[in-house]
Amino acid sequence: MLTFSTPLAFSLLLILSLLSTAASEAPSECSPNSTTGSCRDKPESLKLKLIAIASILVTSMIGVCLPIFTRAIPALGPDKNLFVIVKAFASGVILATGYMHVLPDSFDCLTSECLPENPWRKFPFTTFVAMISAILTLMVDSFALSAYKKRQAVEVEPTTRVMDVNLETQNGGHFHGHGHGDGQGESKLLRYRVVAQVLELGIVVHSVVIGLSMGASDNPCTIRPLVAALCFHQLFEGMGLGGCILQAEYGGMIKAIMVFFFSATTPFGIALGIGLSNVYSDNSPTALIVVGVLNASSAGLLNYMALVDLLAADFMGSKLQNNMTLQTWAYMAVLLGAGGMSLMAKWA
Question: Model-level pTM?
Answer without folding.
Answer: 0.76
